[in-house]
Amino acid sequence: FLLFLLLLLICGLLFNLMGALMAIPLFGMSFSELFTASATAATPENAAFIKYYQIVNHLGMFTVPSVLYIRVFMRSGDVEMLGFKRLKFFSLLASVLILFAALPFTNRLILWNASMHLPDFLGQVEEMMRKLEDSAAGMTTLFFQDTRVKGLLVNMFMIALVPAVGEELVFRGVLFRIFHKWIRNVHGVVVVTALLFSFMHMQFYGFIPRLFLGILFGYLFVFTRSIWVPMFVHFINNGTAVISAWYGQREGIPWEEIDSGGSEPAVAVMLSIIFVFVLLGLLRKMEQV
Prior knowledge:
Blueprint: H1 2-27, H2 31-39, H3 47-73, H4 76-81, H5 89-101, H6 103-114, H7 123-143, H8 149-183, H9 186-200, H10 207-224, H11 228-251, H12 255-259, H13 266-288
Helix pairs in contact: 1-3, 3-8, 5-11, 5-13, 6-10, 6-13, 8-9, 8-11, 9-10, 10-11, 10-13
C-alpha cells in the first residue's frame, strides 16, 4: 500500500513537471505565465491550458502509476484476478442496463445530498465546501462552453475516458486487491474502495451519489470478474453527462439544470432500487454459468 502511494506521488510530481515543461512550447507561455494560469481561476482565455493540465495530471496521478504497479509489483495471481483477459458482451450490456435502471435513485441521491446542511458549529466548514463546490461547478461550466464537435470530443476524452480508465485501475484494480488482503470480506472492500473513490473527488455535495456509484462499480467488478466492465460503465456514466451538457449548451439549457438531478416520484425511485437488485442478481447468476 505504501509502495503504491509512493508511486502515485512520484508519477504525479513527474507528470506535473513534464506537463509544465511541455506547456511552454505548446501554448507559447513563459514560466511566469504558466504559474499564473495554473494558480488563477479558469477563464475562457486559459480553458485550453486547464483542459490540457487536467488530462496530464490525471494520467500521472491515476493511470500511469496503476499500470506500472500492476506490471512491475503485482503478483501474477492478483493480476489475473483483475480479469484483463475476461470480457463478455453480455456483461457490458447488462451492466449498462443496471446503470440506467439506477438513474432515478441516483438522481434522488443527488437532490438529497445537495440539500444537506452541516450543524451550525460547522458553518465555516460548510461555507468552505460550498466555495469548493462552486469553483468546481464554474470550471465544469467553462469546459462545456465549447459547443463544437471538437469540444465534445475533447471533453469526452478528458471527463469520460481518462477518468474511467485511471480511476477504475486505482480503486477497483490496485486498491481493491490490496484491501482484499487486509479485510478478507469482499463487501467490506467494495464499500471501503467506494468511500475512497468518492472522497477523492473532494466534493461534499456530490459525495453520497458518487459513493453509491462506487459501490455499484465495485459489485459489477466482483460479479463479472473483469475490470473492463466497471471501466466501461464508468465511461458511459460520465460520457452521458458530457453529451447531455454539450447538447444543453447548444440548446441554451444551463449546466446547473442538467446537473441538478431529477425529481422522480417515490414510486420510480423504489422501482429503480428493485430493478438494480434484480438485475445485479441476474448478472451474478449468468456470470456463474
